[in-house]
Specification:
Two copies of one chain form a homodimer.
Chain A: H1 8-12, H2 22-29, E1 35-36, H3 48-56, H4 70-80, E2 87-90, H5 92-104, E3 110-114, H6 119-127, E4 131-135, H7 144-154, E5 158-162, H8 174-182, E6 189-193, E7 215-220, E8 233-237, H9 239-244, H10 256-267, H11 269-292, E9 296-297, E10 304-308, H12 313-325, E11 328-329, E12 341-345, H13 349-367
Parallel strand pairs in A: 1-11, 3-4, 3-5, 5-6, 6-7
Antiparallel strand pairs in A: 2-8, 7-8, 9-10, 10-12
Helix pairs in contact in A: 3-10, 4-10, 5-6, 11-13, 12-13
Chain lengths: 369, 369
């Protein structure tokens, strides 16, 4: 007997994971990391008010999360000056990207992204049978012209850009993104991943009509608000597009404490400002550590810094391996020439000091290979 | 310009929700419910040790959940005497059912379930373009013979059964389920939803070889462990089938505090026993309330009781509407003749007393219509 009957698509998919988690690396090296600076988590954590909200509502864990995320969407609508109908909340941006791809990408449909951009988006495109087309970065920036040209060339249903960018931390100004939205090819939806926007200067926030039928924006509580572990993302877009998520989303998928934490985080804008200041100082600290080791770093509009290790990808990978071996969890870009860098997430001084101590040794060891 | 290009399937899907949440009902009636007894949540909540675990780990909310749920799967493997490779953890059973359907059900593929069984499963089948075939209940039990006959007739890829059943609370013994697994049609996978199994007698737990290629079992921390709001479910099955989830699942979808809460809940089997006792007492109480009103109730192997309102579906719907209006959140089966019942979830005495007070008035009002 042959069970089960996988779909034709499922049979072709590899068992793959966009990222290996730091805990798996800890298990394989047999020791915990001393500094967790690799996943662009926010080491400063959520604000004290948010922690208090989680604790004081823990006893509500027996109730399902409210399936419409009504209160959170209402608060977000006020915060952004838009309507609730323009917002869908989901279990992190990863989940919402999956839903979006499912709605729009069928077998062999074309999708465009940058080579070296967010692997989880690519994973979803592959998972629904889409055909992914990649364009190179241009001077460590995502190349908006090349993205649109490629989208036009292949008749893409989706074109993805993160602004600020991950993994380089670079930023396009609002005007560049607005131009992109104004010049989309027929039928192509712009997926504007603004996961890091809460840590970017306000000049990065494009002015786009909320009912623009060609743009959907992804936001998260994982980065600026320090709640990666709670899994709360949201998408902003035209009401018709947002409503389409109701066709497929896991309506009772939201964790109730996550909804409560996000609501508390949004209400505590002073707390966000404190975190923003901490992140700014931490980025400066990482740049100083790079400079102390004779390296340059890229200006970052996010909560991480790409440090240029000054040689090729093999060298940066050697530096990374040494850091991992020394108990410092960092990651790096996947694709040349961006892979000359390692990517270090912001965090408290304790972790920074560990990184500062490890980096010279890692560089020395990598150079000795 | 036309954006976006929805897939052919997405264009055909309605914007639908398997259940309206109680909070939406509260908003529409303009007042909170006094007793929340409708969603088969566990009103006794998680054990004190679990609450303490959530609170004491709240500060970890800045870290992504471990993408393999390694520690939880290791603990579950020990608990069940199986291997980690036989377990996949996901954001509630709803999410895992969605993944399973995605892996196995393509456009027009046949799936079999009982008419009136779990709507969220049906929602996922529709969402992936599957063709759903339903068989009636038999004397308020899911009809295992009819399910298999229909699966054979239509060449189903999946056949779904919940044991214990929702919404009736009835139970098949282990032997009946084992027979079902032994008589599956070629290529048909049995989806055995055991969401309520932690509240059922051990006679309900079938002995099935873990590597049986034709069965996947769904378990959850939402019911017995009282953690519905945390969204932790898991599937148990043959390692090859379980591994296939790695192709499509949202690897970083698990809430970190949910993983911690589930691990603490599993470790606290004394806490589970306490909850089981509370649920048993509460079921007795609900049955007494029914009897006090001249109604019968169905024996239940779950954490809810179906009360037979003694007339047809219209009457039960009227009773339900009266209860809702009185601030008592309950639900009821969707399909005749099961819709002669209302379904009341277990909960603390405070809620029971409110229900006990409301029911006679609701019956009186419904009879007066």
């Amino acid at each position: 007997m042959t069970y089960p009957r996988y779909t034709a698509l499922a049979q072709t998919l590899p068992a793959s994971v966009p990222f290996v988690g730091p805990e798996a690396q800890e298990r394989s090296r047999g020791a915990a990391f001393e500094a967790r600076l690799g996943a662009n988590e926010n080491g400063f954590g959520p604000s004290p008010k948010v922690l208090e909200a989680i604790k004081s509502h823990a006893h509500e864990a027996w109730m399902y999360g409210e399936p419409e995320s009504h209160d959170l969407r209402a608060a977000l609508a006020t915060h952004h000056g838009i309507k609730m109908d323009n917002i869908v909340v989901g279990e992190g941006v990863d989940c919402l990207l999956g839903y979006l791809v499912r709605l729009i990408v069928g077998q062999n449909d074309a999708v465009v992204t940058s080579d070296g951009a967010y692997p989880t988006f690519n994973y979803h495109v592959a998972g629904y049978g889409g055909s992914l087309h990649k364009v190179p970065y241009k001077d460590d920036f995502e190349d908006t012209d090349a993205l649109l040209d490629k989208a036009r060339e292949v008749g893409a249903n989706l074109v993805y850009i993160a602004n600020p960018d991950n993994p380089m931390g670079t930023l396009h100004d609002a005007k560049t993104i607005e131009n992109m939205a104004a010049n989309l090819p027929e039928g192509c939806l712009l997926v504007l991943d603004e996961a890091y926007i809460d840590l970017a200067p306000s000049t990065a926030i494009p002015t786009l009509p909320i009912e623009h039928p060609g743009v959907i924006r992804m936001r998260t509580f994982s980065k600026g608000y320090g709640l990666a572990g709670m899994r709360v993302g949201y998408a902003i877009g035209a009401s018709e597009l947002i409503r389409s998520f109701e066709k497929i989303r896991n309506h009772f998928g939201m964790n109730r404490l996550a909804q409560i934490a996000a609501l508390a985080a949004l209400a505590d804008q002073d707390g966000l400002q404190t975190i923003q200041s901490q992140v700014t100082a931490s980025k400066k600290r990482i740049a100083e550590i790079a400079r102390d080791n004779g390296l340059t770093s890229l200006p970052s509009a996010t909560n991480f810094v790409a440090i240029d290790c000054g040689q090729d990808g093999d060298f940066a990978r050697a530096v990374l391996a040494e850091l991992i071996a020394m108990g410092v969890f960092v990651r790096m870009p996947f694709v040349a020439p961006q892979d000359r860098c390692i990517r270090v997430s912001c965090g408290p001084e304790k972790e920074m000091a560990i990184f500062a101590k490890a980096l010279p040794n890692a560089l020395k060891a990598a150079r000795a290979v």
